[in-house]
Design goal:
Number of strands: 7
Oligomer: single chain
Distance between the termini: 21 Å
Shape: elongated
Order of helices and strands: EHHEEEEHEE
């Protein structure tokens, strides 16, 4: 089961609709066009189109499964007492004295450019259940970093 925000769920549903209504007909058209070019046994365009269609169908099925298994989090029931999924955490790296802000989200919603990190990342795992003022020691590939939690809010 994947916990996610309403926004993340809506994005997955929109992506599924796009794949089914736009990409699937495109894939079928590409196969039909390649089939019209003659001998299928030596038609690399046909093979490529069939492979692309199989990849698309796999992606559609995976999205359907993710949507079926997802559980939307009721943000009104969350607390900013400690770090949890959908918490926006402002923190200071005590080694470099730099400030960082991340929102902890499900794997499907992760977007580093938008400041959203997956709950499965080492940083998110190290922050879970910590409170404002706590220092989290997080093991990352380059070693251990110490992050002081400055504030916690719910997006």
């Amino acid at each position: 089961m994947a916990y996610m925000s309403q926004e993340g769920y809506d994005k997955l549903v929109a992506e599924l609709q796009r794949l089914e209504s736009i990409e699937r007909p495109k894939a079928s058209a590409a196969i039909a066009e390649a089939r019209d070019k003659g001998d299928l046994s030596e038609n690399s365009e046909y093979e490529a189109a069939k492979e692309a269609q199989a990849h698309l169908e796999s992606k559609i099925n995976q999205l359907k499964l993710t949507i079926a298994e997802s559980k939307i989090i009721d943000v009104s029931r969350l607390s900013s007492d400690c770090v949890q999924i959908l918490s926006k955490v402002e923190m200071t790296n005590l080694t470099t004295n730099t400030k960082m802000t991340y929102t902890i989200v499900s794997e499907n919603e992760a977007d580093l450019k938008a400041g959203k990190i997956s709950i499965k990342t080492p940083i998110a795992q190290g922050l879970l259940n910590k409170k404002v003022g706590d220092v989290a020691e997080v093991k990352i590939p380059r070693g251990i970093i110490k992050l002081r939690i400055d504030s916690i809010s719910i997006e």
